[in-house]
Each structure stands twice: as structure tokens, then as C-alpha cells.
Amino acid sequence: MTSRMHPLVRAAVASALLAALAALGKTPPPAPPTAVQPTPGKGVPGVPATCGPRTLPEGNACIPLPRPGAPLDTALPAREDLDDAPARTQPAKELIPRRPDRPAEAAAYRFPIGPAEGASTILAGLDVPSPDDTPLPPSAVEIGADAGDEVFALSLEDQEGPAEVAMVGELFGTTVVTAHLVHDGGRLRQILLFHGGLERVGPRAVVGVPLEPGDVIGYAGDSQRPGRVALYLETRQLREGVSLGALEPNRLLEASVTIPLDPRNVLPLRAAAAGD
Hints:
Layout lengths: L6 H17 L31 E4 L2 E4 L57 E4 L14 E5 L5 E3 L10 E9 L1 E12 L2 E15 L8 E2 L4 E5 L9 E9 L19 E3 L10 H5 L1
Antiparallel strand pairs: 1-2, 3-4, 4-11, 5-10, 6-7, 6-9, 7-8, 8-10, 8-11, 11-12
């Protein structure tokens, strides 16, 4: 008898073994499944994606990670000198600039603080350099004030209906955000005004409350930059298809949610400037 079993004999022995196990009510364990490497890509809607190496799941899609050593996307730097100021995520190149038919001079516009007649004191922004070389985004302006000065709601250029309080909380110090529907090129667009640096909020600063021009929404202070009383005002346009209702306050500054807008496109003109 040789040490090696003939293949036919080996097959017969295996068949007999399987038959014996079946008779005892047992089945051999199944073969382990063949490992399949997941392929990055889009999954079934409503079902999280199964992602491969160097990707991250994002809903039903896979987001590729940058290769090691690859440069990251550039973004506006955070204003580290401002307490409570959120990091900026908006690409620096994206801005809705001033329309050529709108005056360039800040003195032509009405701001939500200060006298109805006469120009407001612009500390920085709208082509006015900051005295301490702290740059402002082109969608923002810093307006001089005394502590406790009333900050009131504005009616923007070509606004449809009353404004509404969209957010009250901490963004640029104590901040009140108002939402305005504005006619632009035959369409209605939602414009957000960020009123920051407040000492405290006003009696009408309640989310969802409609606002008439002149309603007090806050009082000037230095909650953004201690020791420097000013109103920080920023204007941004809500992207189409985005709903304010489901957003966390800090997401209002994300590039996927709003676009920076030159304030001169929407601020109302002072009576004197409008009559020129």
C-alpha cells in the first residue's frame, strides 16, 4: 500500500464523510466569504455609503481624502484678535461685489445705528482701512458708537415685506441676525444682516419675530473686542435651496450656506443721498 491516496479513493472517502455527517444531522461549516474591497462612490439614497481606503462617508457618498502632502484649500484666516469670532470657511475669492450703480461712499448709506440724518462714523470696512491694521471681510463694516446706543432694524433696498429675527446668540460677540427678502433681478433673495459686538439684545430680538424699520434689536457694546465699542455689521446672501429653519447659528457663515455680499448692494440710501 502506498503512502499516497488515489484521487478517486480520496473523493470517495470525502463523500462518505459528508453522508455520515448528514445522517447525524450536522452540516459542515460554510466556507468563509471572499473578501470584497469596497469601491468609493455614491451609495443608494438614504443608505450610508461603504467607503474604501482614504475616503470618508458623507451621507450616501464617499468623500476622497487629500493625498499625503497635498495642499489644503485656502480660506479666509480666522480673526484671532476678536474674542468669540468664528473661524471663516468662505473662500476668499467668492464675493458678490458692489454693483456699479450703487454709490461707493459709505456716507451715502443708512446704517442700523446712529442719527437718521448725517453720516455714521465708519471705523473700518467699505474701503476704510482699520486703524489697527485688522482686516475686515469685504462683506463687513465696523461702525463707531457709544456704549448703549440703540441698534435698530433696517428695511433694505427693494425689500419685500417685514424683516424677521433669524438668530440671537454668540457669533461676533453678542449677535442678532435679521433676515430680509429682497428683489434682485426679478427674483426674491434672502439677505442676512449680522449685528455683532452688542452689549445686550433688545426687546424685539426674538427668533421669528417680524421687524419694522426702527424696532430696537440691541444696544452697542464691546462684546466682540473688549475696550472697543462698535457695531459690527456683515451682509450675506442665503444660497438658493437652503432653509434657515434647520441650521445651527454657526453654520450661517459656511460657504455652502451663505455668500458674502457687499453691504452697499442692499443698505438703504440716506434721504439726502437719495435726493442727490
